[in-house]
Amino acid sequence: MLELKSVEKTVGIETHIHPTDLTLEPGSFNILLGTTLAGKTTLMQLMAGLERPTSGEVWFNGKNVTGVAVQKRNVSIVYQQFINYPNMTVYENIASPLRVARMSGQEIEKRVGGLAEMLRISSMLDRRPSELSGGQQQRCAIARALAKESEMILLDEPLANLDFKLREELRDELPRIFQERDCVVVYATTEPTEALLFGGKTAAMHHGRVIDFGPTGQAYRQPVNLLAAKVFSEPPINTASITKKGARFVLNDKVHWPVPDRLKSLRDGAYTMGIRPHHVSPLKVGETPVAVEGIVHIAELSGSESMIHFDAYGDSWVSLSHGVHPFDAGAKATLYADVSRCLYFDEDERLVAVSEQREAV
Amino acid sequence: MARITLSKLRHSYFPVPYKEEHWALKQLDLEWEDGGAYALLGPSGCGKTTLLNIISGLLVPTEGQILFDGKDVSHLPPEKRQIAQVFQFPVVYDTMTVRDNLAFPLRNRRVPEAEIAERVREIAEMTDLTPTLGNRASHLTADGKQKISLGRGLVRTDVNAILFDEPLTVIDPHLKFRLRAKLKELQQRIALTMIYVTHDQTEALTFADRVVVMNMGEVVQIGTPSDLFDRPHHTFVGHFIGSPGMNVLPCAIDNGKAVVAGHVIETANRISKDAALTEVGVRPEFVSLASQGLEARIVRVSDAGRFRIVSTECAAGPVKLLAGDDIEIPADGARLRFDPANTRIYADGWLAGSEADR
Amino acid sequence: MNKTVNQKGWLFVAPVVLLVAFNALIPLMTVVNYSVQETFGDNLFFWAGLRWFVDILASPRFHDSLVRQLIFTFSILLIEVPLGVAVALAMPRKGIGVSVCLVFMAMPLLIPWNVVGSMWNIFALPDIGFLGWALNAIGIDYNFTQDPVDAWFTLIFMDVWHWTSLVVLLAYAGLVAIPDDYYQAAKIDGARPWAVFRYIQLPKMRRVLTIAVLLRFMDSFNIYTEPFVLTGGGPGNSTTLLSIDLVKIALGQFDLGPAAAMSLIYFLVILLSSWIFYTLMMRGEES
């Protein structure tokens, strides 16, 4: 178990990580989600002991490890760049941490064989990294990170430099690979979809702060505030200012809908609604579709899906739907927002409640 | 503006190619219409960059010709081909302002200053660069720099085509989303031949009117985004396009019909000839959980937010399907139904029967 | 974002700090000590205050050698930097030619400085040296041991021969670091070679050229061995640069006080000019 206790990192007058408390359970898969410069890498370095916090403490399995160097902790790291020893074969690369640990030759052979099998690079063991494709190089780096029985494995955007399809492939395999280990896994990514597919727990990060942390499904469906909802939406979440007037939420004269029972007790006033693009469709679908008139900015059609960028009463909105729905740029269009999927935020941009309470995944 | 024709084009990086695998580009015959938006899509090493370099003039093809409006340009250097290019890593002239960057190609061609100012104003408006015209180009973000490189191409009136070489790869997801929409918008507004090279299916499919899917130096299929999604001509296309890609299961053939693990599968096409390898392909979008059908074991359910990806294992291999929030997923055993209109038989990788010939 | 302050770092720097202390700081302090005192040997010192500094700054002899020094430094900078860049531009970027050129370029830099002086001394002698003989043979009256102009010409020519390679190597390193995409984009934009140089190569070489100019500036200001061996500061005092003059005062006349004061002035001049150079060249980078 890894605990960060009020960990802060400042460099000169700049604060890279604001005081952060975070507890990562053993055997858990944790995702750090945020844009470039959100502080993901710095937070990972603090966790690994590559960096020393300016203040606060890092505890691992009940021991204070603040200031204990990375070499003295049992930690593995996989980077965005494919980092392998260029003059060693794949076999030697994977075996290198085991040789350092003075494992017997037989044992090494067994371990490397198993890892290569799991990462599907068995047929490439005698090649050098430069003879491999990007995806295979990264598999080799991951196998090496897994070779020693680390108590913590950190992966810093490991798939960012890979081709789309290779990324998809590894995304599929990684959860399976980490399933059987009881180490703490931390995975940094800029992509919400990646976080969702991995499951586990997600920490949404923004400007050096962890703004939300919880089971990934919950962090996605019930983000604590508007900012967390924005960090966890790709394409960006659509937002609009609305008012609650008695039993109705009002966007404007034409667009209003009944307040769901659970929210009846909210006081009247100004709120912000957020609705993700796939709950806005050119077709009248969903539980409670509400018509929104818009001017189409551009329609991106991908053969099986349509992404329609439009202006909805002054806000830029996006609709993402199945099927091919062509629209001319500048055309008027009616799109339907399934308001049962709306998120509502109060004046401080905190989530008041979701329309429909969902089980956390 | 120009129509681009590739005629019997082949390229090899070997001085004397004598083996099939020496060819980085196998025989290619293509016709790109004036003002069309095309994408070259394929994995790394599929030959798409080689082809791009042949079009831009950096490489002279080993065999065959490249024609602009019927004129052979195979041996013309890049600067004589009137082609603009946006590179993967943004190229801007650091010491110049955004305005001077945009004006640069026109100044080099000795266009009168008044005309330059007018063109630059127009293009800056189009690419949303107007507010930054006076800034140093080196101070812009990556997406701003990409707009400058694109603007330098658009500003000229003599451009035959614009080439995009993975222009969004180094751009952050939230900026990528906006720039992609911007490129699409420009593509619709400007009647210029545009060729977009990428490994990212979403970029290729949203940008282009027609997509050329390449694999191992060969064109596998050329079609509209819907064609490629709905009727992949090869299992590679099915797999490469769509996320997750198409499910491909080995099948036996009985009377022209596909049989997977003892179940007869209704398909949109039939097979008439013998083949060494026969397979059934169906996209995860067209697989559903049903009361009867192919027996499968559910391996994993992953939540993609918009839908869930259900990974199952049937006797013939893994099958993925997409399920909405409203669908209940059984804990262990399930039965799978393939939508007949979107399930196809593939012989040795290629779409079987008459449907492929249309 | 990833930079950090690590206290342990000082441990690694400590040996260098000590070395610099022994190597530079202590001698410098000794010089400062001398510069404010008068000595006649035998460890007898008298307080002199700023007298030496005032004397030196007012002395025509110092002014003359400072002017000569400045002329020398700016001449070689004006020749070596453009020439170095031109040679770097002309060098091949690929193939066997690269290593051949690099080895060729590195050669003058490997020759000990006093050897360079002797080489050129002999090479330029009007009677037995090839250069001197050849010039006279084609009708030019050349004798660097007697004619100040000839001496200057030889001195500058020697420095250019010796040090242009350094500029070439730095500029070349800057050039090869430019991605091909830039050249390609420039071709597409219809840029002529001059525009490519002005808007791509020169801006991308800026950093390395700043280093080259600084190095050449400081080194040429400090230059001693080569002119000493070549001309010994003559004929007359015509090639007596600052450093030569300094040694003449310190060792020739054993005026330790004035020599120390002059060293300090000399040191400050170099420090100040380097700083001005550096800020000027970096200013463009920041704005």
The amount of helix of chain A comes to 10-25%
**Average pLDDT level of chain A:** 89
Task: Tell me the distance between the termini of chain B.
Answer: 30 Å
By DSSP, the count of extended strands of chain B is: 22
Look at the structure and give the CATH class of the largest domain in chain B. Alpha Beta
Q: Under the CATH scheme, which architecture of the largest domain in chain A would be assigned?
A: 3-Layer(aba) Sandwich
Query: Stretches of chain B where pLDDT falls below 50 for ≥5 residues?
Result: none
- Main sheet strand line-up of chain B: 6-7-8-3-9-10
Q: Please tell me how large the radius of gyration of chain A is.
A: 24 Å
Considering the chains and any ligands shown, give keywords for the structure:
heterotrimer, A: alpha+beta, Rossmann fold, 2 domains, 6-stranded mixed beta sheet, 8 helices, 21 strands, 23% helix, B: 358 residues, alpha+beta, 5-stranded antiparallel beta sheet, globular
Describe this structure in words.
The complex is a heterotrimer of chains A (361), B (358) and C (287). Chain A has 8 helices and 21 strands. By secondary structure, chain A is of the alpha+beta class. Chain A has 2 domains: 230 residues, 3-Layer(aba) Sandwich (Rossmann fold); 117 residues, Nucleic acid-binding proteins (OB fold (Dihydrolipoamide Acetyltransferase, E2P)), CATH 2.40.50.140. A 6-stranded mixed β-sheet of chain A has the order 6-7-8-3-9-10, with helices on both faces. In chain A, helix 3 packs across helix 4. Chain B has 2 domains: 227 residues, Rossmann fold; 112 residues, Nucleic acid-binding proteins (OB fold (Dihydrolipoamide Acetyltransferase, E2P)). Chain B has 8 helices and 22 strands. In chain B, a hairpin with a 2-residue loop joins strand 21 and strand 22. The longest helix of chain B is centred in the middle third of the chain and has 17 residues. Chain C has 287 residues and is mostly helical. The two termini of chain C are 22 Å apart. The mean pLDDT of chain C is 82. The radius of gyration of chain C is 23 Å and the shape is globular. Chains in contact: A-B, A-C, B-C. The interface between A and C is small, with 9 and 6 residues.
